[in-house]
Amino acid sequence: MAIIIDGKSVSADLREQLKLKVDSLKEKGITPGLAVVLIGDDPASRSYVTAKEKSCGELGMYSRDIRMPADSSEEELLDLIGKLNEDKDIDGILVQLPLPSHMDENKVILGIDPSKDVDGFHPVSVGKMVLEQETFLPCTPHGILKLLEYCDIKPEGKKVVIVGRSNIVGKPLANLMIQKQSWGNATVTVCHTRTPDLKKETLDADILIAAAGQPEMISGDMVKPGAVVIDVGVNRVPDDTRKRGYRLTGDVMFEEAEKVASYITPVPGGVGPMTITMLLFNTIQSAQNRK
Asked: 91, 116, 117, 119: which is the annotated catalytic residue?
């Protein structure tokens, strides 16, 4: 049976360290500030934004929650971002994705000052990451690297297979894990919908990362015995037996994979808590840069 990688526990440990940094900055008259912008009223996004607010409060950070109607114009959003760029109380700006269909996501991301791009999505941040220059790393990939580090799992020399090629997880994580860094030096394969024999690829993985957003697409017989399995997926699956009418599941069939893997992350409670923690990490780093 696999060892469960407890993202809640690792996140709590990291947040204790971050709180010390916040306390130190506040002694110097600087309170790290995060602005989160939510357009519309998507339940999942609203829940995520609320969790970010609560986390900021627990660390003693300043949090500004800005809600805009779903029919707000792109111009109104860009105007708001421009004001936040100039706001000295704000160190990090996060615009909750996805955006309404009438807004251009790329244009909105470009509007954020790279020095406040705590999501790590701006082309300047991405370019610096690829060139291995200091920048804000995207939160979910960075959180995955921290989980591996806490479990003393070194990617160097390992075969890593990432299922999923999104700009948020798959692509940046692949780039980070091939870098000449302590978290890298791995041989990385990225799989996607056009991969002809997915099972053949996943069975070759020492570290298997599922980030495709497809419920339980990775079964136990697709996992190499002794592999490390990182499940990034968070999917709402209809379930009439649950009070809320759905259950959360990852991209991995947990009960099957747990019997084969050496380490595995659960859903929920695995990668999810780390994403918000690394967002706080980046915001505090931005405040330190300001100091």
From this structure: 119
